[in-house]
């Protein structure tokens, strides 16, 4: 999975209110990839935009794993327990 991300090039000076187009910061592309060792499932996708039609995507990823010794589990009633032998 490739995530297209951009960050401002100058982060030392604060940005003005953003109304003047000359004061808009320059952005550089820095794409990211998912670096997990196990495969993941996409649980939720949130897409939002601002008035300038810049889109933002948020992904919630889920992994299914086998329980190991020492993992904590909780029922719906809040009784927490730890797995053991």
Number of strands: 8
For the biggest β-sheet, the strand order reads: 1-4
Note the total helix count. Answer: 0
Query: What's the SSE pattern?
Result: EEEEEEEE
Radius of gyration: 21 Å
- Low-pLDDT windows of residues: none
Tally of structural domains: 1
Q: What proportion of the residues is helical, as a percent range?
A: under 10%
Plain-language structure description:
By secondary structure, this protein is mostly beta strands. The chain has one domain (2-82). It is built from no helices and eight strands. 0% of the residues are buried.
Brief overview:
The protein has 85 residues and is an all-beta fold. It has no helices and eight strands.
Spell out the key features of this protein:
single chain, 85 residues, mainly beta, two-stranded antiparallel ribbon, elongated
Helices, strands, pairings?
Layout: E1 2-3, E2 6-8, E3 27-29, E4 32-33, E5 41-49, E6 55-62, E7 72-74, E8 80-82
Antiparallel strand pairs: 1-4, 2-3, 5-6, 7-8
């Amino acid at each position: 999975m490739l995530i297209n991300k951009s960050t401002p090039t100058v982060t030392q000076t604060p940005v003005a209110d953003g109304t003047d187009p000359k004061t808009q910061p320059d952005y550089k592309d820095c794409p990211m990839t998912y670096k997990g060792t196990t495969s993941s499932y996409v649980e939720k996708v949130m897409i939002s935009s601002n008035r300038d039609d810049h889109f933002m995507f948020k992904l919630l990823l889920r992994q299914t794993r086998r329980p190991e010794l020492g993992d904590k589990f909780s029922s719906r009633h809040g009784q927490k327990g730890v797995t053991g032998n």
